[in-house]
Each structure stands twice: as C-alpha cells, then as structure tokens.
Amino acid sequence: MLAAPKQRFIGLEWLRFLLGCYVMVYHSLHQYPQRFSVPFLAEITSMGFFATSTFFVLSGFLLTHVYFDGNTMRESGGSFLKKRFCNLYPIHIVALVSSVLVVSLMQWLAIAPEGPGASLRFVVYDTNSELAGTSPELFRHYMTNAQLAFNSVLQLLMLQAWNPYFLTFNAPLWSLSTLFFFYLFFPWLAPKLLAARHKWLWMLLICVLYLLPPAWVIWQQQYGMPYTGLLQRGPLFRLPEFLAGILAYGIFRQHRQANLSLAGSARTLMVVGILLCFGIATALFTHGSGRYWYFLLHNGLLLPSQVCLVYLRALARDPASAWLRHWSPRLGAASLSIFALHVPLFNLFRTLEQFLRGDPLLCFHDWQACIASAGKVPLSIAGYLIYLLLTVAICVIFQERCVVRMRDAMLRLTSGIKKTQPQ
Predict the structure, then answer these.
(1) Where are the domains of the chain?
(2) What are phi and psi of 73, to 5 degrees?
(3) Could you tell me where the beta strands, DSSP code E, fall in 113-212?
(4) Bridge-partner residues for 123, per DSSP?
(5) Which of 260, 283, 354, 389 is deepest in the core (most CB within 10 A)?
C-alpha cells in the first residue's frame, strides 16, 4: 500500500483528458469533409502524435510523483508492475473485444463506404514513402491465417507494439502496449534519474539521443517498412519520452523544495514557445516534405515543448470551482479508456447513424435496398458532436464502473494466489 495520499495536479488531470480527446478527434474527424469549411481545422487536428508523445511524458511525470518518496519507491517493483498491469489490461481486453465485435457488425451490414471492406484481416502497412501517398492501395493487406493467429496472440499478450509492419484490430491500442513496456523499466531507471545530479544535462542527452534514430533513417532514406513502424510505436524508440517525464518531475520537485517559482513573464514565454512549436510543426508536417519532417517531429524535435507543457500544467493552481475539482480526476482517469475505446465506438456510431438516418423500415421487406439507402447517408457534424460527448460519457462510466472493479478483482485474485502459496 502507498504510505500516504499525494497531491493531485488538477492541471495535469485536465491535460491528460484533453490529450485523449485530441487523439479521438485526430482518428475520426478526417471522415468528415466538412472540416475543410473551418480554416486550419484540418491542419490543427492532424498532429495526433503530439498528443500521444505528451501523454507518455505526462505518464512518467505522474507516476514518479505518486510512487516516490525522495529517490526511493514507496513500494516494491513487483507490486508496482502488478498494479499497472491490472489497471491497463481490463481496458485493453475490453477495447480489443469491442473492436472485433464492431468490425464483425460492419462486415455483416456492409454499409458503404466502410462496411463492404471491413474485416478483422484488413491492415495497412506502415510506411512514410512517397508511394504511400500516390498509390495507397499497394499497402492494403489482408492477413493470412498465420498472420491473424500470430497478431491475435500479440494482442492478447499486449505485445502488439512490437509488430513494426502494421497495426491490427484497434490501431490506438499500441499505446497501451508501449506504455506497459515503459512500466517495466520504471522501478529500475526512475531512482537513477531522480538521483542524478545534473538533471538538465540528462534531459538534454535524452533529447539528443531521441533524435538519433530518425536522423539515421532520414540519412539512409529508409522511409518505408519496417522503419516507419519502429519509430512510430517501437517501445525502445519511444522510451525517451517516458524518461523525460521522470526527469521533468525530478526538476519540478527540486524547484518546489527550493521554493523557486517561475515568474509570470517566464510562464508566458513558455506558453508562446509551445504554441510556436506546435504551429510551426503543424505547418511543416502538413505543407512541408512530410517524409522526413514526420520522423523528426514525431521522434524528438517536439520533446522539449512537450516537457514544458507538462511542467506548466503541473504548476496550475487548483480551481476555485468545486465542479472543476470534482470532474478533473474523473475525466483524467478516463483518458486511457478514451485512447482505447474511441475507434470501436466511432465505427459503431457512424454505422448506426447511417443505418438509422437511411430507411430502416425498408429492411423489413427489402434488406438490400435498406443497406443501399444507408450507404448514401453522409455523416453529419451534429452527429459527430454527439459521438464526442457520448464517447466521453461512456468512457467515464466504463472507467468507474468496470475498469476499477476488474482491476480490484484482479488484484484480490493475485493477492489470494500469493497468500495460498507454500511458505
């Protein structure tokens, strides 16, 4: 058990909730051509990797705050890993099963444009080559029986992030796989980073090391497979983000213990810097030569701004509003569920929207005409806003009513097994 409750960072709770919402929009808004009617909306919502990287930094920061007293963990590494696994796996397995069921429903209904091609076997090879933009059909693939079985095992074991060629079933679940890999290193590396004397130098070293793999890929002109997948989600290649979060907390703690605080002008300068970094990165990614800018921006170039964002939000004061104080931990806790469930929920929602806005009564006497009618229904922005609100509500309820109970049951089960073992 943890020795005592720790301070909650209300600013970080809201940040991780908003990061989850940003990723949700990133993975779904591109289905709506109406986005082009709002200037710069398509560009601003194209930077999903910024949110995921910031979430990894934030995870390192928060876990260090919760699990450390000084430079010593408040409990054993085994206990930490057991708790982290029991928190992640229920989300992962429910999201996986939900994805399988929704894709099966889409395949059965076969409502255009997504339904006819829906299949558990369908994947897209990860590549950042020019050919992917000019001939995307070359990278669409239907898994063989062996590939389907192998990747199903990877999913069940939460190891899917180690497949650098393509993502299966529910693409965003790779982040949970990678996150658990970070947890494996946490009890070993966090004490060393917190005890380091020159944390700013270590932070600089991590930022430089993080940029080396994408720099090598660009130098070698290796924009295809498997390098794109390795850099995008390879746990070892994404580890610097998590480590930067640990160091950021170490620096934050030092400043707080020394009663040092950032002046208002310094905070303003940091905010302007973060916004400039995000704006310039968006312009380079969407209108520059995406092949190499993607690798640099995705793997390291934006890490300083992401660390600054987490640091600034940790400095935020608790709001005076009791409503905000009540909802911040609930929404923050639901962020992982939003990451994991938003894709199957979106696929389900858009399928039902088309079906219900078509001519569902026609299905009672002419199924083919009913499905054809549904396929002609365009997705609406009003429906999209309903989807966003429903997803947040569902994920909050799922986190509190399902994940917490499954986690506690798993912890009780593992504790019971341990107690019954012979001494």
Answers:
(1) 10-416
(2) -65, 145
(3) 122-124, 140-142
(4) 141
(5) 354
